[in-house]
Design a protein that fits this description.
Elements (H helix, E strand, L loop, with lengths): L2 H29 L7 E7 L5 H10 L3 E6 L4 E6 L4 H8 L1 E5 L30
Antiparallel strand pairs: 1-3, 1-4, 2-3
């Protein structure tokens, strides 16, 4: 591979990465739920918060943790009372999203043919 080809490949890679970052910088804030929302949400927390602080934030927001993602940086949590998202943000969450927005990601996105039943991942039943 010549240095010209490598340089062009690197420029294309950096260009696509920059475009992806720009699209995500616009799309993620637009996809966030309003503070008045309730129900089941995917709450994203700061990596600076401890695991206990993330769970306490969900409890302070009068919610129940359901399932953790990304090593506990994101939690599927639920509360039927209105304003749950606003309380989560006050307690330390960066944002909250509708869980269906990211349902395709755990299965590999558009590169995976799912053999699992459709729907959100469910927690394992108690033993």
């Amino acid at each position: 591979m010549s240095s010209t080809t490598r340089g062009l490949t690197l420029k294309l890679l950096v260009g696509f990465l920059g475009l992806w970052l720009a699209v995500m910088a616009v799309a993620l804030p637009l996809a966030a739920l309003p503070e008045s929302a309730g129900g089941r949400v995917l709450a994203v927390f700061s990596p600076g918060l401890s695991a206990d602080a993330r769970l306490l934030a969900i409890a302070e927001a009068e919610g129940r943790p359901v399932l953790s993602f990304l090593g506990g940086l994101a939690w599927l949590a639920e509360s039927e009372s209105p304003g749950f998202v606003g309380r989560l943000r006050t307690a330390g969450a960066w944002a909250a999203y509708h869980p269906d927005s990211f349902a395709v990601l755990p299965q590999g996105g558009c590169f995976y043919i799912s053999v699992h039943p459709p729907g959100l991942p469910q927690p394992h039943p108690p033993i």
